Each structure stands twice: as C-alpha cells, then as structure tokens.
C-alpha cells in the first residue's frame, strides 16, 4: 500500500557542506527479485540487507497473497518459504503494488504461467503507467489480461493453463519487461528466449543462475540473447543485498555540489549495468573516487568518496549509457545545473513513463529555480550555471515520484535560496532513511509548513 497520508512538504537550503559516512539502504531492484525468486523456490530463502522501503514491502505482501510464507526476522533480515515454480495460489483479494512499476511488472510475469487469476492495482502514479509492454509478451505464453484503456491498472491477469515457451525481443530498453518474460518462462516447459538490443540491469539473470535455473546469456548480432530452461526446481538461497547505487546517487551528488563537502558512501554495488551515473560524473570533472574496490557475492563493490567539485563541466551523455543510469537522470540534471555549460541527454524517452514524466517534472522545477532547460520527446538539455549559480527559491512538485523529491532537495543544498518540495512522502518508497541520513551528514533538510 502506498503512503496515502497528507502531503508532507520539505525544504532544503545551503549550509556548510556535508561530511561523514552515508550508509545507504539495500538495492531496490535486487530486493524485489530476492522476494519473488524466494517465493518461487522450494524451501527457505534468507535475505539480509533487504530494502525496507514501501515498494519492497508491497512486494513482500504480494508474495504472501500468492501463498509464500514471508517473515521479517530482524532489521533488513527476511525469511521466505517458497511455493515452487508454478505453485502460486490464487490471491483472495486485489494485489496493491503501491507506487512500484518493478513490483507489479515482475509479479505479473511470475503469475502469468500459473493457472490462477489475479487483479493488480497501485497508486495514482502506477495506475497511469503503461502495462501493455508486459501483458503483450505474457499473452504469447497464453496469459490473458484485461485492464483499463491503454492496458492500465487496475488489471486482471488470467494465467496460462497450458503455458507455451516464447522467444521475445524486448522492444524498449526495460529490465522490468525482460524480467517479467523470464519469470513467466520459469512456468513454461522448454526454453524461453529473451533478446534485448541494449543491455539493461541483469539482476534477474544473475539471481536466476544463483537459484539454480539453467540460464545462458550470449552476445549475438541481435543483441543479448538470454535463454532460460523452464520449470526448474529453484533451490533456496542466502542473499546479501548490496547497497543501492541509485540511492547512493543522492548523497554523492549532494556532496559534489555543496561547498565544503566530503562524504564516504561505503559498499555500493557497481555492476556495470547500473554504474553509468558515476562514470558520467567523473567525465564532468567530479572529485569522485572508488575506494577499496572488491567483489561481494559476485558483484563489483566499492566505497564511493565524493568531495565538493566546484569546476564541473557539462557534457554530452552517451545515449548508449542511458540504460545503466536511467533512474539517475533527475539527480544528474541537478548536478548539471551546478556545472558550467550545457549537459545534453539523448535517447532517454523512457524517462517519460517512470513514476512521473521525469523530463517534464525536472524541466519545470529547474526552470522555476532559474535554470534554462530545453526538451524534446526523448532528449533534454540543462544549461548549467556553474557552482553556486542556481538561484533556487521555488516550490516544486514531486508528482508522487521519490526521485524527483530527492533530486530537488539535493538542489536546494547548493542553490542561493531554499528549494521547497510540495510532498516528500514518496521518498519512503525507495529510501526511507533519506532525511535522517542527509541531516546526519549536516544537510539542511527539514519538514516545512508549506
Ligand atoms: C528496474 C528497471 C527500470 C528502473 C526501475 C527498476 C528494475 O525500469 O527504472 O527503477 O528493477 O528492473 P524499466 O524496466 O522501466 O527501465
């Protein structure tokens, strides 16, 4: 269930910089997958470092509704007794995925090849997002879906009684679509193949292999070809969730633009399918170093050290990097506003169908803060004003989008006048400790009276 309370305005302003150590929570993408695959394994999966944000809690509740036993055993520690592939029970009530596109799309995939019917809904943001991109390939397995106009939620999915394996080329760069097809493929006999032209985050593939599924990935002329053998018996796992590079982006970017800052963000997963922001920041001239690089659970991990960087320059972000930093464009645009000259971001049409239309949300808010932004359907350009150059002084809308709220609160830490966000509640979906973590570093972020 999404946070439905009264809007919670928040405000941020310049201070003397951020200092210290920022322990960000577990990775959201990995947390969803750990719960879902745990629910599809036979026996007990144990997870540590799970992100206890609302999105992931909604997925935990959904797994219970499909018959898995899901229990919290300590802080970030969870135990899941799975029902086995094809073992999902029919939920008694509507599945509410709150704000989470990842949750609803992956769960629809996992349910599509079981002979059950389930109805899904979410908050106003999720109900406005396209689901046809998932229900179209699920129909190839034999599942049927009836939703609102444009395939939007609420939507009822009737799982295939006699599922067929599929070969599917994902038409948009989307790890959610790829993952939904793979999870559906678990319930179909024979080999399901998913082809993606551009590599997107590969947590599902890695985790399926960890749970003992037969899965191969080959680079071919068409792109990445992923082949999964269906109806495996998934073996329960112990999963240590790495810290989320998408959440780390907020304290890191705040430190880069707030004068006087020096912040260490330890233990961040730097899987190449997720680390595009950090490469981009370094190309812009950020004082950002990777300390103590190591391998944890098969993933590259490092401690990120970010220091105030007063001389960053705008760059042209390579479009082929977009998938590896798709969630980071809002906060990148904030850094871009504080760099010298234009930052050009192309090949990012997917930003328009996230929790909000993120190009529009950021463009409007940045303009209100005195920054010039140009935009087209799948591109935008932020004209940076250099360190200390952003006027700020505006009240901006977060549009039920956690990353928009956090991005503007970061901007306020470096702009001349305070920035107010109309509602900080969505932050709880992915980064419930954002406010205490940032204020603990010395950031002037507070609840506001409006
Ligand atoms: C995610 C995939 C991305 C990303 C989202 C998490 C995932 O969405 O934006 O926050 O965990 O698979 P798309 O699949 O829509 O690109």
User: What is the average of the pLDDT values?
Assistant: 97
Number of contiguous helices: 13
Quantity of strands, as a count:
24
Secondary structure: helix percent: 25-40%
Task: Pick out the low-confidence regions.
Answer: none
Small ligands present: shikimate-3-phosphate
- Derived structural class: alpha/beta
User: Strand share of the residues?
Assistant: 25-35%
Termini Cα gap? 25 Å
Please give the order of strands in the largest beta sheet: 22-23-1-24
Q: Please tell me what the overall shape is.
A: globular
How is this structure best summarized?
This protein has 450 residues and is an alpha/beta fold. It has helices at 28-40, 54-65, 101-111, 124-127, 132-141, 175-185, 203-210, 245-257, 276-283, 329-337, 358-368, 402-412, 434-440, and strands at 10-13, 19-21, 42-48, 69-74, 77-83, 95-96, 117-121, 144-148, 152-158, 167-170, 191-196, 215-220, 223-229, 238-240, 262-269, 287-296, 299-307, 316-317, 340-346, 372-376, 379-385, 395-396, 419-421, 444-447. It is globular, with a radius of gyration of 21 Å.
Highlighted features:
450 residues; alpha/beta; 13 helices; binds shikimate-3-phosphate
Description:
By secondary structure, the protein is of the alpha/beta class. It is 28% helix and 29% strand. The chain has 13 helices and 24 strands. The protein has helices spanning 28-40, 54-65, 101-111, 124-127, 132-141, 175-185, 203-210, 245-257, 276-283, 329-337, 358-368, 402-412, 434-440; strands at residues 10-13, 19-21, 42-48, 69-74, 77-83, 95-96, 117-121, 144-148, 152-158, 167-170, 191-196, 215-220, 223-229, 238-240, 262-269, 287-296, 299-307, 316-317, 340-346, 372-376, 379-385, 395-396, 419-421, 444-447. The strands form six sheets. The protein has a four-stranded mixed β-sheet. Strands 2-15-17-16 form a four-stranded mixed β-sheet. The chain has a four-stranded mixed β-sheet with strand order 4-5-3-14, with helices on one face. A hairpin with a 2-residue loop joins β16 and β17. α1 runs parallel beside α2 and α3 runs parallel beside α6 (175-185). It is globular. It binds shikimate-3-phosphate. Shikimate-3-phosphate binds at residues 29, 102, 174-176, 179, 201, 326-327, 350.
């Amino acid at each position: 269930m999404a946070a439905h309370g009264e809007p919670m305005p928040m405000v941020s302003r310049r201070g003397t910089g951020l200092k210290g150590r920022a322990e960000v929570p577990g990775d959201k993408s990995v947390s969803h997958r750990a719960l879902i695959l745990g629910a599809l394994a036979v026996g007990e999966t144990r997870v540590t470092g799970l992100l206890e944000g609302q999105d992931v809690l909604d997925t935990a509740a959904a797994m219970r509704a499909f018959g898995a036993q899901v229990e919290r055993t300590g802080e970030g520690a969870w135990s899941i007794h799975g029902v086995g592939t094809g073992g999902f029970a029919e939920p008694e009530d509507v599945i509410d995925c709150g704000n989470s596109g990842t949750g609803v799309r992956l769960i629809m995939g996992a349910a599509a090849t079981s002979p059950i019917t389930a109805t899904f809904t979410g908050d106003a943001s999720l109900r406005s997002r396209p689901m046809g991109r998932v229900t179209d390939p699920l129909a190839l397995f034999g599942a049927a879906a009836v939703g609102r106009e444009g395939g939007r939620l609420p939507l009822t999915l009737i799982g295939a009684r006699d599922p067929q394996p599929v070969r599917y080329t994902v038409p948009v760069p989307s790890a959610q679509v790829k993952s939904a097809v793979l999870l559906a493929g678990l319930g179909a006999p024979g080999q399901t193949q998913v082809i993606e032209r551009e590599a997107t985050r590969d947590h599902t593939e890695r985790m399926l292999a960890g749970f003992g599924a037969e899965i191969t990935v080959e680079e071919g002329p068409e792109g990445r070809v992923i082949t999964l053998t269906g109806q495996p018996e998934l073996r329960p796992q112990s999963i240590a969730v790495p810290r989320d590079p998408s959440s780390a982006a907020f304290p890191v970017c705040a430190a880069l633009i707030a004068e006087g800052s020096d912040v260490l963000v330890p233990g961040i997963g730097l899987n190449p399918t997720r680390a595009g922001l950090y490469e981009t920041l370094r190309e812009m001239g950020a004082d950002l170093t990777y300390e103590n690089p190591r391998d944890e659970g098969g993933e590259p991990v490092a401690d990120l050290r970010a220091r105030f960087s007063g001389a960053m320059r705008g760059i042209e972000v390579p479009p082929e990097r977009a998938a590896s930093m798709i969630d980071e464009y809002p906060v990148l645009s904030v850094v871009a506003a504080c760099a010298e000259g234009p930052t050009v971001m192309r090949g990012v049409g997917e930003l328009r169908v996230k929790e909000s239309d993120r190009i529009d949300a950021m463009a409007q808010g940045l303009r209100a803060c005195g920054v010039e932004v140009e935009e087209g359907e799948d591109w935008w350009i932020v004209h940076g004003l250099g360190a200390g150059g952003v006027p700020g002084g505006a009240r901006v809308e977060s549009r039920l989008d956690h990353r928009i709220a956090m991005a503007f609160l970061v901007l306020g830490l470096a702009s001349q006048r305070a920035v107010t966000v109309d509602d900080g509640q969505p932050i709880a979906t992915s980064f419930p400790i954002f406010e205490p973590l940032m204020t603990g570093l010395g950031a002037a972020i507070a609840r506001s009276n409006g």
